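Reader question, answered in our methods column.
A reader sent in the components of a multi-part assembly and asked whether the whole thing could be modeled at once rather than chain by chain. We filled in our standard form and ran it. Here is what they sent:
COMPLEX SIZE: two components
ENTRIES:
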Amino acid sequence: MRGIGDLNALAEPLVISIDAMGGDHGPSVVIPGVARSRKLIMGNVRFLLHGDSAMLTEAVARAGVAGISEIRHAESVIAMDAKPAHAMRRGKGSSMWNAVESVRAGEAAAAVSAGNTGALMAISRLVLRMAGNLDRPALVANWPTLRGITAVLDVGANIVCDAERLTEFAVMGGAYHRAVYHSSRPSVGLLNVGTEHDKGHEEVKGADRLLRGGEFDFEYLGFVEGDDIAKGTADVIVTDGFTGNIALKTAEGLARFFRAQLRQTFTTSLSGKAGALLARRPLTEMAARLDPGSINGGPFLGLNGIVVKSHGGADAGGIATAIRLAADLGAGDFAGEIGRHLARMAPAAEPAREIVA
Amino acid sequence: MRGIGDLNALAEPLVISIDAMGGDHGPSVVIPGVARSRKLIMGNVRFLLHGDSAMLTEAVARAGVAGISEIRHAESVIAMDAKPAHAMRRGKGSSMWNAVESVRAGEAAAAVSAGNTGALMAISRLVLRMAGNLDRPALVANWPTLRGITAVLDVGANIVCDAERLTEFAVMGGAYHRAVYHSSRPSVGLLNVGTEHDKGHEEVKGADRLLRGGEFDFEYLGFVEGDDIAKGTADVIVTDGFTGNIALKTAEGLARFFRAQLRQTFTTSLSGKAGALLARRPLTEMAARLDPGSINGGPFLGLNGIVVKSHGGADAGGIATAIRLAADLGAGDFAGEIGRHLARMAPAAEPAREIVA
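And here is the structure of the entire assembly that came back:
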């Protein structure tokens, strides 16, 4: 199923497996999201919808997607606040587990869930296993910038990362950017507190040496700083999961702060209200550009299969965006590409260490 | 001079030492900044202005601050791109060095410079020395939030921090918040990737144990996440210099991104332009609230003396804000308070480790 990019397979529909019960709103948002995703995906696509069959039958009929969907009944749902360990032990037969299992069994090219992040990662590792010698998947954020979208990873799955792990993120991030944004040679930056060689801790300095010494299918830019993320300096920005998670959540907090400032500006005075009324269309367009839903969905990289995590609070438009991302990744030979580059990485990097040391 | 908060000393003017040549614009902005700071500072204040005497005599006369200023000629200026090691070896006699030296000699209660950050830190360590067993100063950012200002530290001076160092930041940050924002018992949060006890790496978990076990003059809130910064969840947020620097610069980049979006919204369409014209006053007020100058100035904490770093690109209003901050810190027994708390920290924290281990 993952070879669907082959010419022979083009006539077959791409199958996406959906955790239809996941997220803050469940099927009432996920199924309309499935319907909306049809407009975003080029080509033939079908859906495996995992969840409560009675609820899903009704939602599917209402959304008009019965013709392209197959409902798979699941007995249980993983709670949004479930502990990952609990989800691993008790999750079998849940809509989330079964959505990932469809990918393992080769029935679907990719899975999408808006459920509990930790549970989805734990179940995905258990069911799909990690590729090569990787220990844990990396989680990617698609970050809107002045120049487009930058893929930032890891944003929370790997709290402590050595130089080799950061180098693997660069390889996986590069492959991800090629698969989703069709860049021929993406640029990759390593997040640090300055751009000079002697800046930062041992892990980033070590990763910088490995990335300078290796031969990769991306352009390595060296160190970048925090403000380079929103500037769009690089297509891919690599960091450890601790720093990446804090940078991402700091940005989410700041976005809410700006929205609050803007709302206050346009609601507390008469001239502000009048201005907002007059500029309604450009303000609405700006709100749409800044809407997190328009960039919703981040995949776990490094698994033997494709799993996309949607924001739990995503609306139907956000779910549709996450499904399109899964389709983009599922249609290409994404997992194979990552595997080939990781296999090439170790020997290519060895001589570089000797030169530098 | 640092005992100026004493009743006997209240009649004496508070003396602030200024690197008048520092920053992107030098005396043409720094001296007007000195003039503007007079309106922000309650009480009697005088300035020692270090720099080229010919340039300063003219600037001081133009700004009308001759009566409260004493010009101290300095032979040289530290370049904005100078390496810290070079500044330490060759910086003696520069306007920056002499501004810090005035604090060491007890002639001034605090120094302010808009010059090179690394050079200012290196010269301050060399001239003033660190308090107690501290290794390097911590740099504080005053972060605007939905509830006021949160002090975030360290934002770049200490790249690798163990649990003890993070705990010291909490003590210094608490003392800083009391001195500047006059809070009786500031709240302190430890930045992490989640709020549960088992989240994060060993250093933050260790600091969490020390902070729970010790007795401090602040309210320890436990772990906070990136979005808690702009939310204003805590008065003080503690993190290592790597994460803090990246969070701060990520926020600066995002702020520029938002301003670009806003500008585009209000300039590319006729209705946008008309709306901006109508809502000019509230928009200008919002711009002022978001102006980095209005929160300019971050001190180095942990030195035997007070040094405030202003942003290099600050305008006169920004310089004035940094000078007011120096005056607030200089008027209180800030350094003494930090020293007493650090001395108390170690014995208070020991039993906690035993209980937890």
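What stands out: Chain A touches chain B through 59 residues (CB under 8 Å). Residues 296 and 321 of chain A are 6 Å apart (CA to CA).
Send us your own complexes using the same form.
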